[in-house]
Amino acid sequence: MCAPNENILQNVAFEASEKIREKTIYKFVDVIVQTPKGSNHGLVTGVIVEDHGNRYEVKPNSNGLRFAVGEISFREYKQLERKEFRLLFSIFFGGILTFLVIMGIISRLL
Hints:
Blueprint: H1 4-23, E1 27-34, E2 43-51, E3 54-58, H2 62-68, H3 74-109
Antiparallel strand pairs: 1-2, 2-3
Helix pairs in contact: 1-2, 2-3
C-alpha cells in the first residue's frame, strides 16, 4: 500500500513524462521507471529521447520538458539541473545549520 504522498509524486512524474512524450521534437524512446521493494507501482525517474542517433535522458520535470520541446539545449538543461540541485542542497544544509545554531543558543540560555 502506497502512502498518499507517494501517489502524488508518481502522478506528477507520470504526467510530466506524458507531456514530454506528446510534445517532444525528438523521437521518444522510453521511460525509466524505478520500483521500490515491496511496491507494485513504479516512479518515473527519466525519459529517453533520441535525435540523429544521440540519446538524451531527461528528468520528468519542467526543465526536461523545456529541452524536449526545443526551448533549451541539452547543455543548458544540464546546467539548470546542477543549479537547482545546488540550491536545494544549500537550502537543506542552511536549514540544518540554522536549527543547530538556534538549539545551541537555547541550550546556553537554560
